[in-house]
Amino acid sequence: MNSTPLPITVISGFTGAGKSALVNAMLANDEGVRVGAVSVAHEADPVEAIERDIAALAEQQRFDAIVVELPPFVNPLDIAEQLAFGDDEQATLGGQAVLDTFVTVIDAASFLRDYASTDSLAQRGLASHDDAHDEGRTVVESLIEQIEFCDVIVINKIDLVDEEALETLASILHALNPRALQVQTQSGKAPIADVLDTNRFDLDNTASAPGWLAILNDEHPSNGEPDASGVGHLVYRARRPFHPQRLWELLHREWTDVLRAKGFFWLATRSEVGGALSQAGGTLRHGPAGVWWAAQDRSEWPTDDPELEADIVAEWFGDPDDNSVGDRRQELVLIGLDLDVAAWDANFDACLLTDEEWLLGSDGWRHLNDPFPAWDIDDHEHEHGDHDHEHGPDCGCDGHTH
What we know:
alpha/beta, 21% strand
């Protein structure tokens, strides 16, 4: 057995982006690094296949590192969580190997077209064997999973785009994942030191890489100045509920200047449960984020987690004994290209209850028209407060395409 665990590089990317070209370049590297390769393109259980094949390679004791190529329908976060066994990455695969770097390969020529697409994976013939899991899942949802959970972004095929387009693409990818190292390549030929044995992977840090999450956690100003390519952001915060009908209508309009939106919201008709929103490209989904702490009896608050309890108190609005607002709030981040910040601020403001509607109180709000589907909250208790772990509110519920 190897005296030290073999570093594993996991490579994600969409069909045709250049994953295989990158893998082949790593195998044929000029630095003398002996690389073993694992591909799970046709496996029903990718994790089981990865564990089996890595164990077989490690037992040969002739490799310095291992590279794993994932199919486009596999979420790299799922692979990381199942292989890393919590916080002890060194325990990966019985000590034979350790997750070291997550790489996402982007096709510079087709990325923006795919990102704007409303195609499902099934329509592209890319759904997994688990049809139920991938039902309705779109191309852009797969892309955003790969971009937001990685340590290195390889922008491939740069010879097929002009300099201005490349600069804009690099700015967009940096906004979506500011933590990731960007490497620009032709034919997948990246410097081996940038993609292998980098020691960049850390489960918590890599999972906290999404740009929207960094913006919320850092409490950026509401209107981030756009960069030279026009990529900017908006953080919308309010302590008054949305009128459900007006928000519904806004969510079903074209969001042409928005690349990514994420966060949670408060509907006047649903005072117990917060809503979660997730938009990427042409796909927008919404559903339950979790039960507001203000809707819970104080006896149900976490007494064994002082940090979480302090966070709840810090987010509380008004008197500590007044739960009419409490931790309920609007907190949404938008990342966009040539984003009209003032217009989006006004759009969301127009969805808030008016002063007259506010005075109706929660009993009166129940009678407001609410076109949102019913929410099943069994699996979503208090997720809305978890901005600094994992991937935040997950609303894989009802959605539509723009």
